[in-house]
Amino acid sequence: MQDTLAQIPGRIKELREILEISAIDLARDIGISLETYLQYESGEQDIPISALYKISARFGVDATVLLTGEDPRMDTASVCRAGEGVRIERFPGYEFSSLAYNFKDRTMEPLLVFLDGEKEPAAPVTHSGQEFNFVVKGVVTVTVGSRDYTLKAGDSIYFNAKLPHAQSAVEAPAQFITIIQE
Fold it and tell me: What is the model's pTM?
């Protein structure tokens, strides 16, 4: 199942309006400036996955609703076949595929991330909770705080996601599984 990043801002705006939440109130509630929020909602700026979680929590919906426009359906088990996750290009050179998008009330978010070493690496991000990265293919540098960790296929790292962190491909293409627990 594939989707485009361009549809997510429209879903957010539509839900915000249905729920009668002003843009300024939503920005305040998720801890960002109104200007940044409006850039997310207009599609001018990429929406970090952590902001998607905060917005979905504020709306009282699963993040899958924002990603796909549909509610997750499974509560016992959810299988995601190879190549069938909800794939989002967050920005050129950084795509992820949600591997558990159809499971209700997830307490963590497993994603398969695709990095293109030819593109500019992402700026560091922070979010609540913890994060686990497991390199599947290639070589990835994971920056946590001021320290860089070079990981090869089969290596993993678990870290405090409140620290600024980023991943970049050393050998491209690179893939890693990340599990984010808010």
Answer: 0.76
